[in-house]
Every structure is written in structure tokens, then in C-alpha cells.
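Hi everyone, sorry if this is the wrong subforum. Our group has a chain we'd like a structural model of before ordering constructs, and none of us has done structure prediction before. Sequence below.
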Amino acid sequence: MTHLRVDGDELVAFDRRHIWHPYASAVGDAPLFPVVSAEGVRLRLADGRELVDGMASWWAAIHGYNHPALNAALRTQIDSMAHVMFGGLTHPPAVELCRRLVELTPDPLQRVFLADSGSVSVEVALKMALQYQRARGHAGRTRMLTVRGGYHGDTFAAMAVCDPDGGMHSLWSGALPEHLFAPVPPAGFTRPLSGADTEELAALLAKHRHEIAAVILEPIVQGTGGMRFHSPAYLRRVRELCDEHDVLMITDEIATGFGRTGELFACDHAGISPDIMCLGKALTGGYMTMAATLCTDEVAETISRAHGAFMHGPTFMANPLAAAVATASIDLLVSGPWRERVATLAEGLREGLEPARGLPQVADVRVLGGIGVIELHEPVDMRKVQPAFVERGVWIRPFGKLVYTMPPYVMGAEDLATVTAAMVDVVATVHPEPVA
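Answer:
Right subforum, don't worry. Here is the predicted structure as C-alpha cells:
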């Protein structure tokens, strides 16, 4: 790992005075740790300490950091073209990336719209659904149906389909479009499906079908909304209901795409295809911001024949650098033993997190693919918990009642054991027991 001499105190001092961090107060003094380099599964702090990264930089750096194949892709591309507008032009990196995406995703998804970030890909998906319905003569279909407990991003339309009450965007209630919300999917990846599980969702579709443009949900795993897992059978039933009521199905695979749940895409567990799919995060291996919204020919051609164009166009759409590293990341993933690596992660997570199950602070412990979760009875105190992880040589970023990890796929058994041991120890010794 490259050793850089950096004054960490000066970095933090300037940061606290001038920089606003995500989901943070501009006048707070929450713990802040300056990173100067990263390699493999480790982050190096300005004071020389190294942390095993259990977060894969918000789930994106699936190959770890400073990977030679991804570095090479960027170096090669920058010598020919760093960026060019995508209006009226195309270029090899965009074509190659979209070729990979069409090949890897379910067969009906044949059209790719490239965007800047996961939230923007959701905005694009919602606009596609609305414009599609208008193109079919259904101008009254302006609402979305989703499930409680979901999270789809921080931009305005995306916030409107996040959980309206318990989610982080409840502050904006009254200012957002009002959509329809079915109950949280029943918990349990292997849970058998009963008729009651989708009864209310089906009733909402039947009652409001002439208002609904699409159903949007996170397949199999609800991420930031609570790290809950639901069954493939539930997802299959949602697909059936969408077909029955002639509404589009949008799957938000931003967190679950590219192998995180043990299948390449979470909808593969159910053997279904959505009409529109959102991808992001791991798309570029954590190197650059980029996202993709894929749709069927039916969606794309219906919009285009009626309106001539889909009305969206990010300035940095299909950025060649991002497209080149995304293609390299996908090739690196599918050419390697990703399925075995994720299965090994799952085994190590189950073994390593099991001791937390008996702690009085703990409500649940669950694992699916490369996702390990300790759910607590009470929210964590980040001022205490975050430094405690750093002291143990691990980077874990809890939120709410969740202490969780989504490590890079390349993490070895010893480092994974370090991560899980730290999670159990911090929960046991730092997080308080629930008050009787």
C-alpha cells in the first residue's frame, strides 16, 4: 500500500469547518477518520493505522481497492478520451458496457439507459413508467405502488417511493408525491408464501390499477430501509400481479446486483424479469459513479413511437472512463469464481456472527450471500460505536439499529473473521443492553 505523508489533524480541521458529509450535521463533531490510501480490503488512515473494510465503500468495491485490472482500464481509456457528450454520439466503452449488461441481465431487458448514480437511475425508471403509460393513452396512471420498508435513493422522485413513515425521508412528507404503499414483505428468504402475504398488495392493485403506472421494489433484500430479506416466492407473486393488472414492474437492484445475494441479480432467485431494472453501486467496482436503467423493447418502443424521445439526458451520461472501468469490473467478476466467493463469505458470516444471537442487545442475526446483519433492539450510539470499530482495526458503518457488513468479495477468511469478531465484540461491550 502506498504510504503518503498527510497531516490528518489538518484534514479533519478543514473538513469540519467547510465540508458537509452524508446524513450528517454541518455543525456536529461526529467521529471522522482521514483515509490516505486503500488497497485490497484495507484502508490506510493518516496516522498509519490500517482498517479491514467491511463496507466495500457502501457495497460498491466488490473487487477491493487498487485492483490492477481496473486501474489498467482507466489508464488505457484516459489516453483516448475522458469524456464526450452522448447526445448524437456513441463510443466503444459505452457500446461494450451495454453489450455486457444486455448479455447478463434477464433476456427481456434489451435497452440500456446510462446515468450518473443509483438515485438517478430510479428517477429514470419512474419517468420511463410514467411516459410509457402516457404513450399508451393512460395519462391518469401517475402513481407508483411499492412496499413499506423500502429505500430507493435521495433524489425527489426516489424519496417519494421510500418508506413514508419510518424511513429517513419522512421529513419531506407533504412535499413529495403521494404513492401507494403495501405492507413490508414477510421476512425470511426461505419462508413459504401464503395468500395473506400479498393480499393487501393485490387489493391495492385491484382498487387503483387505473392510477398505477408501476410497482417498484427492491428484490429479495430491502437494503437501507432495514436489511430485511424476503422470499423468491413473494417476488414471483408480485410479477404475476403486475401482469394481471397490466402495470409495469421495476426492480431496484442497485444494492443487490452483481452477485451480492448469491445470484448475479436478486431477481434471478425467483426466475423472473422486471420490465425495468435499476443498477448502480458495484457496476464500476467502486471506482466511479455510474448507473444503468434497463428496460424491455416494449417499454422503449412504446415511448419512442408515441413521443419520439425519452425526455432525460444527464450531462455525463455514458462517461467513457466510467463505462470502461465498469466493463472491466464486470469482466473481472464473471471470469472469476464469484459465486464460490460469495458462498464462502456467507459461510464465514454465519459462523462469525452466530455468537451475537444470544446477546440481550440483539433482536436478530441474519445472513444472505455477502450480507451479514446484527439487528439490535435499540439504535446504536455512533459516537461510541464508530471509534470502537476503528480501535479494533475494522471499518464498519452501522445505522439505526443495524450493525451490518457487506465486504468485498475478495476478502479472505482471516480478515472476515476479524470483521465479524469486531461486530460481535462491539455489540457486546460498547452498545448498551436494552433497558428492562
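For your construct planning: The first helix runs from residue 8 to 18. The chain is about 35% helix and 15% strand.
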